[in-house]
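Supplementary Methods, section 5.1.

A reviewer requested that the exact input to the structure prediction be made available. We therefore reproduce it here, unchanged from the version used in the analyses.
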Amino acid sequence: MTSSTRHVPNPIFCGIVPPHLLDKLARAGDPAIAAAARRTLVADAAHRTGRRLTTVVGAAAPTDRGAESKPRRTLYDAEHGTALPGRKVRSEGEEPGRDATVNRAYAGLGATFELLMTAYRHNSIDGAGLPLDATVHYGEGYGNAFWNGEQMVFGDGDGEIFLDFTVPVDVIGHELAHGFTQYSANLTYFGQPGALNESVSDVFGSLVKQYTLDQTADQADWLIGAGLLAPAVSGVALRSMKEPGSAYDDDVLGKDPQPATMDDYVRTGRDNGGVHINSGIPNHAFYVLATQLGGKAWERAGQIWYDTMTSGNLQVDAAFSDFAKETVAAAAARYGQGEEHEAVLKAWSQVGVLTS
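The structure derived from this sequence is encoded token-by-token as follows.
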């Protein structure tokens, strides 16, 4: 089945902060923290409904990767309201203004575009030059960032648990990568395909950060959302690809629940079947692959993941083993039966996912 004939399910709202974290914060003893989390949950619920009504039906394979191969960014300010997109505050090519949040969002959109274009000749997230729109200062103390099927949205955080969501560039890359998935493999947002959807966003979010910092795989911290948690929180990030389950251990947030291998796979009906939890398994497989291969992770390891996502061979309901098999095939197709192919096999074996 090719991308152009693929059935496209209704897209689901995908925020960087998992709902299980917001649920926990909504029950916090601190009234300010609890109130901010409840407002975020209410807003997120509304956007989940909205995304079911505004799907990209029949998202086609990229047709013209060379046209207008420069970003087309537009930034809006919600001014702490919830109407989208808000007041336009910066367009492509305009000089930075005084609002650091706007400037960070503009730069992060550009960094994601540049990685996709430079490393993979993929023109914007759809491969055909899609304009990149983003809204900042969304809501009052809104504790999330999301891609709504059409644009990016960033909250300022509550200042107690979460800081400004434009601070970590990998958060920007993560959410834009949901758009990349929407226009390529369009993985269903439930269970294992949903966890793969989240993992692909973590992978490309991390690659955006590493590309921006010009880091090798062994230099990278492999954290998702480092710099997002407020100083009082006992944690370093939302997730760790290097050591899933170690990103935070806090009295208010609880402990990071992500597993690193199938031995600890979490079966749950919450969070769309644990999409933000079990994503730790394919996340760790990518980390293992990238560090085994060494060098810049967006080159060989990232190329294999990119080839897998854009091959047209993945079904929308792909399980971990289906995705793993396609990465093995992608590695062989591009690099032959050598080091890269062997490293992919070892990476999935290490996390307990079968490839045959």
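The chain has a mean pLDDT of 91. These observations are discussed further in the main text.
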